[in-house]
Batch of 2 targets.
Target 1
Amino acid sequence: MNRVWAIVRKEFIQIVRDPRTLAIILAMPVMQLVLLGYAMNTIVDHIGAVVSDQSMDERSRALVQAFASTSYFEVVGYVGGPDEARRAVDRGDAKVAFIIPPDFSANLRAGRPGQVQMLIDGSDPNIAQTALFGGDAVARARSAELLAASLQRAGGPGGLAMPIDLRPTVLYNPSLESVNFMIPGLVGMILQMQGFILTAFAIVRERERGTLEQLIVTPIKPWELMLGKILPYVFIAFVNVGVVLAVGLLWFRIEFVGSLALLLALSVVFLLGALGVGLLISTVSRTQTQAMQTAVFIMLPSFILSGFFFPREAMPALIYYLSYLVPLTYFLQIIRGIILKGSVLGDLWAQVIPLAVFGALVFGVSAIRFRKSME
Amino acid sequence: MGYAVETFDLTRRFGARTAVDGLSIRVEPGRILGLVGPDGAGKSTTIRLLTAAIPPSSGRALVAGRDIVRDPEGVRARVGYVAQHFALYGDLTVAENLAFYADVFGVPEAARIRRTAELLAFSRLAEHSDRLADDLSGGMKRKLALACALIHRPEVLFLDEPTAGVDPISRRDLWRILGGLLGEGLTIVLSTAYMDEADRCHRLAFLAEGRLVAAGLPDELRTLVSARLYEVRAQPLALARELTKGVAGIEIVQLLGDRLRVFAEPDAAPAECLRSALAAGGAAAVDVREVAPSMEDVFVALRSRRGLDG
């Protein structure tokens, strides 16, 4: 064990003196925290809209008011005719244009449908979809109101309620804050990235600088070298996770519903797999640059498939099944479950078992390969 | 008492290439063995085999009494190794490097303090002990590597081209240190391409293409040069060269800056003929004397003989 500690001590000294490693350990998590916490908000609201109201009377203004009073839309300007409205969207002044024709009110009064045109900038499907549904919802609600009012005027019962009253209750993340979703994901991302890259770097660095040649001629055993190389980064990864969770809880005020102990325990299982992959990468890379390239090559599809940025439910069937091969997929479900839903171990077996199997397998294979590469 | 290093038909292949081919050599304790040979002769591979860094393809070797195949860890605990290129941690200080290797070799705390001080002193690195290894000069790096290789008091020290690329002062320093170590009972095996260093070894092994071409004491090996060797000085040298070539019994004439090295047939005794030929030809300040072959000559002779044998 003494030899393991010798390696651990040496690694820490080298980490502190290597700016590249320090950047990955300190700067990256902070940067990601800020980016994901603030910049990445997938809920779209306050979509800019221009209005071309050619009817210009009480009814058309009421409709525009209905649109504007939701948080979906924000009226950024009034334009003259439909052509101007179209140009506004083309120029990007607004993502949406409402075009109300001159005969809108006349139609309504005559009992005919009042047509309203809505132009939507479709280049970002996320925004476009929200605009579509938002506009549709407002239009329907307004229609229902108008119907109820005219019924009442025609002598029907007063105070007619809406026929269908939908009562949504949002469980687990009622404020629908993106950050509640992102922070747990960020924990997974950090564990994976640091597990992959830093471990691979640490080992490849020895090979690249030729120090392995000297180390081979000492009593040190491959498993001691491996352990000594891994331990500092396990420690660092958990410190980072702690920082992220602390910032998430105290600054972003996410709600941590479940058990911290369970989270840490399962993080170790996940980290085992990530470290294993890092070891594997180190056995096929000659230089740190190569290690980085290989790591990125593996990580990018892993992030995309895991449901970190994009919901897996939206993926085509084949890709969806592929995502079952990615450990991060399971870990994200675990960590989001624990933090947001207070899941306990009993809820999570379907995720924990594949993760544990993957971790043991990869770590085992890479440990064997590592030992062979030492000879 | 046994040999410090003993190999039996040691062979190592890398794919189709045979780097070391049936090597059988022996070194007595407290001696220096020099492995000499051109690039690719198998010197580095031999050292890696003997330090148990890599296993042999076939054959055996005993180093400090341990079998490199059956007890590689025992070998590694008893040998020190200084690599050809700097293989220590550039981002650690001199002191940190020594401490690390002391830890790895399991040197007990009390011994470590004393030993580190000794090593720093004799390698004259004590005042640099807090400097990063990367910031040392070539010669100092070499001495640090030597110190780290000795921290655990090995029985056999292996050095791969220890003075390659090192300035002459540091070279002399290193040899002084090595000489001192012999006095403490250490056995040294080093590879070198410098022929003048070969002369300082107790025993030599000439390697070419993985095979042992000749082995023995330097004086024994000198007898392999069957030609008789003369050094000729005269003015002008170019003229002397032409004249010398014409003398009977002369095989090779080498022009070396300020003198000629003349190889004559074994049975010839051309000293007088040379003097008269040179004087008759108009050369002045003529000086002809017989000399012993240097290791370089031995090496050249061995290679050309091999060439003749095909």
Note: The longest helix of chain A spans residues 178-209.
Target 2
Amino acid sequence: MYLIQKLLGKDLGYRFRLLVKGPYSRKLMSDLRRLSSIKYCRDSNDPIIRRFIREVMNAGLGFSKAIKVLAIHTMLSTDVYPKPKNVVKEVSRACGLDEGEVRKLILKFKTLTKQLSTT
Amino acid sequence: MELGEGTEGVIKYIYDELHGFIPLNELEIKLIDTPTFQRLRRVKQLAQAWYVYPGAVHTRFSHSLGAFMVASEIGSKLVREGLLTSDEAEILKVSALLHDIGHTPYSHALEEFFSRRYGLSHEEIGKWVIEEDPYITEVLSDYGIDPKEVSASIQGLHKCVAINELLSSDVDVDRLDYLPRDALHTGVAYGLIDKDRIVHTLTIDEYGYVAIPTKSIQAIESFYIARLHMYRAVYYHKTITAYQILMSKIYELMIKELNTSELIQPYVSPEGIRESIRDGTFYLWDDYLVCSAMYDVLRKEIGSELLRKLINSYVNRRGYRVVYEAVNFGSWEDNGKYEELFREVTEVLSRRLNNEFEATVFYSFIPIFSGEEVIRVLVGRESIPIRDYQASIVKDLPEVMYVFRVYALDPVRSEVSSLLRSTLSIK
């Protein structure tokens, strides 16, 4: 949801904070418990969301791990203050991945998010 | 001035009824002395609670100092243990001091209105204050503290995750102060906690999670139980909630009516509030301003008859009374039935009553545990969420508290009661 807000540039009403596992929203947690929002996202007809989810699933890390990498990287790069000196290092530490793997994934999605944001 | 200069060295103490002497350095004194911080003396912590607990007249000012004190104790401890740097501890302290700087008058009553109408919270207002209020930004900058770093901490966006957790999570500096403070002033004994044990044993595990050792489990258990008791006895008390709702409706109506809106300008929209922050007049928006605006409506007989009637009800403690109430603890699965009930009752009342102010439906679900923000227990070198720790009663506590109520003003109370009984089979 954090990435969708960032990708679409839309404020869906969720405020995120940085915790150990990455972006976290108390309100989203409540809503997810109450509704089946995850299912909604995966069944979304929005072509941008569908393409984004397809690319994430094909990233080779598994959906949830790839999402975690992207969400933490995006938050550390754009929302967190002061910005960490080595964002990739922070992401790899938080996700338990090699820095090389993180860099490869980020590069792939930088191109994609640029394309999607101009769509 | 470099960060660190003027931030060491206690130069004054303030005596607090809960924590005793609170030591303050030059920076902290200067922040407290700003008109914007002094405003918090004129914003009650529990707004309408004094309708039920006459002693509940403590202010956001004393609570902010209290949260600061807790943050100071925790920060000093973690610096001694090498888990935080002294710069991070200073940011933690300043953020705790300013965490409520953007609170609306009458606390949650007016925040409810701004949140519902504009999606605006006191945290967002606080961010504007810290980054744009001339008094606050001047002091922070004079002492080499970046206002954006302080506001990021309060929003949970600091790069140091532990700061984010210590400022806002299940067990944070805010709750470690307001629970015992509110218990003290209301006289509700169930709200007392073993704050000292929690503060002096709290730590950060190797992954960055805030955690407590197993020897402090009982302190955390009593903390969660105290919270449950305070929700029921104070924060969601039927009468206190009733007057919060009434105040929210009064403010909304005052804004709607042209000649009364002038009494509370510019604090009627996010743009107006932000403008007041920028031009240094935010400090005038306090409980007294709203109260005097209500008195002006009554004394000068301006505004509609409905507005005067509502203000009269509020001032003279003749406001909403409960017609029906269901307060329960349960799991998330129970939410659906309360939401359905809320929709049905709201629809029935809107069809059958003259206006939306005679009666109102209140529904809230209060998560007892906040997902990722739950406190963790150190087991070896790692920590696990307390809900997963088998040797604790916390794992058996309910997930959610549900509060569903139907309120009405006196003239229509029996009509609403009959409506509920006949239409919805509510006994």
Note: Residues 2-117 of chain A form one domain.
